[in-house]
């Protein structure tokens, strides 16, 4: 376990060194993403300025939900950048490289890429939290914990969706739809949806664990919400690993000779 | 013009050659329209009024459908051009007997038309079920003309961002922020009519409202005066953006260095 953790840390260090090689691009993407998130949030400021309340949700709640979701999205890109294009890697036979090395395949492939704009999303989440008017030291601790658990659910969801590529043989479009669904549902007030839709948001597209539930936990410390998030994180992660391993047995490649740089 | 029509035709056939991909991609609009409907249904119910600033729930949802169709269906020309600039493949297009920008315009149109048609059909079917039948067929010609103007404005802005790759290392942040300005000042997520007066005044001066709000508003409420106003605005901004594009292209060509092949 410690050996794998050391391996993971070396991968992250290498990834960080590689993005730092192109500092201007890294900085422009990170700052650009912070601006992008900030400008996008203006929509909600305009909306709540006019309509004040959506079934009990107000602007402060949106700041929180947006903060947790943006940081979780960013952290997934920073630590496990290949989670966003695992499907393409599978379909294009690029798992060969990872399979030939004596390291856990899934962990290795996920952590082998960094999304530079992820830093922008990650930082914006904290800005959004501080702007929510609910900042406190205890709250900050809960925010960090909530982001870690939301990231786990999000990465697990990405693995599950893209492991389907082992069976379907296609990647991109469906993955794009799944990511869009997860992020869209996470960023809207959960009170909009009826019970059937809520059930889907806790199971099939677990966006509630990326937005509403962690935001609720940051808002008010609750063992029940923490338990729900921890259970979801462990459950979805276990399912994702299982599905990936099952899919790996069906993996075929063209034995293409490739060099991973 | 024949050669440009051929470019358009090739891309049209290319996009139509993969109908399953076309339909799957259009599935994204279902997620967005369903969420929009939930949000505005609750908002209209809470306001206790059937009409807000002259728009009913039915109008708002059909307005958003047209806006979303344009947003999801417009070509990502900035990405295409910036990639060509960065990897040098633009050199292979410049020595061909056509004008590069007209080539890209027809390229984008051939891809965009079937995508937009499919998005409208798929999204429209859901909106019809949720919010009722589409606006009167007599409304459509004015909206389609304004849609064509909006598409050209998007093309000019996208191409300008793509050509920025001649001077900037990374153009994605420009594209993100441009998209968010379209979201807000273009009235893509909230019709501009719901904004405070001062913001409406700003939005109506800038090009973004002619890229999104204009055609979507004409679709739900055809009005000759509004039509003339939108067409005039589009013509002015096409001159400004088209002129800037021509200038940026000729400057970019002067900076271009082709080394070997």
Provide an overview of this structure.
Chain A is an all-alpha fold and 261 residues long. Helix content of chain A is 72%, strand content 0%. Chain A is built from 13 helices and no strands. Chain A has helices at 2-20, 23-51, 59-79, 86-91, 96-99, 105-110, 118-131, 137-163, 165-168, 172-186, 195-202, 212-219, 223-248. Chain A is globular. The mean pLDDT of chain A is 92. Chain B has one domain (2-255). By secondary structure, chain B is mostly helical. Chain B has twelve helices and two strands. In chain B, a hairpin with a 2-residue loop joins strand 1 and strand 2. Chain B is globular and about 70 Å long. In chain B, strands 1-2 form a two-stranded antiparallel ribbon. In chain B, helix 3 runs antiparallel to helix 6.
Helix/strand order of chain B = HHEEHHHHHHHHHH
Helix content estimate of chain B: over 70%
Helix content of chain A: over 70%
Shape of chain A: globular
How is the largest sheet of chain B built, in terms of strand order?
Answer: 1-2
Helix tally of chain B equals: 12
What profile does the largest beta sheet of chain A have? Answer: none
**What is the number of helical segments of chain A per DSSP (H or I, 4+ residues)?**
13
How does the helix and strand content of chain A classify structurally? mainly alpha
How many structurally independent domains of chain B? 1
Strand content of chain B: under 5%
Largest interface: A-B, 37 and 33 residues
**Beta-strand content bin of chain A:** under 5%
Ends apart, CA distance between termini of chain B:
30 Å
SSE arrangement:
The complex is a heterodimer of chains A (261) and B (261).
Chain A: H1 2-20, H2 23-51, H3 59-79, H4 86-91, H5 96-99, H6 105-110, H7 118-131, H8 137-163, H9 165-168, H10 172-186, H11 195-202, H12 212-219, H13 223-248
Helix pairs in contact in A: 2-3, 2-7, 3-7, 3-8, 3-12, 8-10, 8-12, 8-13, 12-13
Chain B: H1 2-16, H2 19-47, E1 51-52, E2 55-56, H3 57-73, H4 77-87, H5 90-94, H6 100-131, H7 140-163, H8 172-185, H9 197-205, H10 208-211, H11 213-220, H12 224-255
Antiparallel strand pairs in B: 1-2
């Amino acid at each position: 376990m410690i050996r794998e953790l050391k391996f993971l840390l070396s991968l992250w260090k290498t990834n960080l060194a590689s993005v730092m090689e192109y500092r201007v691009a890294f900085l422009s993407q990170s700052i650009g993403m912070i601006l992008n998130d900030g400008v996008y949030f203006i929509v909600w400021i305009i909306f709540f300025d006019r309509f004040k309340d959506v079934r009990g949700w107000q602007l402060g709640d949106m700041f929180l939900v947006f903060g947790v979701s943006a940081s979780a999205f960013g952290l997934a890109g920073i630590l496990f950048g290949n989670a966003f294009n695992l499907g393409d890697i599978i379909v294009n036979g690029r798992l060969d490289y990872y399979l030939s090395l004596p390291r856990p395949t899934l962990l290795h492939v996920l952590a082998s890429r960094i999304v530079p704009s992820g830093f922008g999303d990650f930082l914006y989440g904290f800005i959004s939290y501080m702007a929510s008017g609910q900042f406190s030291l205890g709250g900050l601790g809960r925010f960090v914990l909530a982001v870690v658990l939301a990231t786990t659910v999000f990465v697990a969801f990405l693995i599950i969706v893209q492991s389907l590529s082992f069976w379907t043989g296609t990647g991109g479009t469906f993955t794009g739809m799944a990511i869009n669904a997860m992020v869209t549902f996470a960023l809207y007030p959960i009170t909009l949806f009826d019970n059937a839709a809520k059930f889907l948001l806790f199971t099939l597209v677990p966006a509630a664990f990326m937005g509403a539930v962690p935001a609720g936990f940051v808002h008010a410390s609750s063992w029940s919400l923490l338990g729900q998030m921890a259970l979801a994180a462990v459950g979805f992660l276990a399912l994702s690993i299982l599905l990936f391993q099952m899919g790996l047995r069906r993996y075929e490649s063209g034995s293409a000779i490739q060099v991973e740089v | 013009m024949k050669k440009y029509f051929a470019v358009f035709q090739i891309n049209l056939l290319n996009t139509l050659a993969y109908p399953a991909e076309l339909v799957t991609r259009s599935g994204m609009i279902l997620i967005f329209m369903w969420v929009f409907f939930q949000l505005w249904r609750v908002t209209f119910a809470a306001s206790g009024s059937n009409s807000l600033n002259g728009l009913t729930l039915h109008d708002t949802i059909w307005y958003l459908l047209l806006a979303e169709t344009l947003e999801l269906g417009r070509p990502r020309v900035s990405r295409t051009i910036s990639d060509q600039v960065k990897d040098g493949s633009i050199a292979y297009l410049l020595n061909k007997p056509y004008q590069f920008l007209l080539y890209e315009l027809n390229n984008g149109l051939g891809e965009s038309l079937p995508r937009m048609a499919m998005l409208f059909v798929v999204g429209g079917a859901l909106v019809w079920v949720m919010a009722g039948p589409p606006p009167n067929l007599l409304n459509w010609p004015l909206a389609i003309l304004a849609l064509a103007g909006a598409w050209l404005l998007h093309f000019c802005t996208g191409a300008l961002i793509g050509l920025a790759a001649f001077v900037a290392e990374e153009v994605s942040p420009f594209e993100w922020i441009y998209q968010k300005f379209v979201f807000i000042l273009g009235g893509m997520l909230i019709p501009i009519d719901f904004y405070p007066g001062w913001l409406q005044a700003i939005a109506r001066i800038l090009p973004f409202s002619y890229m999104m709000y204009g055609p979507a508003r004409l679709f739900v409420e055809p009005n000759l005066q509004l039509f003339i106003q939108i067409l005039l605005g589009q013509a002015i901004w096409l001159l400004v953006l088209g002129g800037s594009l021509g200038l940026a292209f000729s400057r970019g060509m002067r900076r271009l260095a082709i080394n070997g092949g």
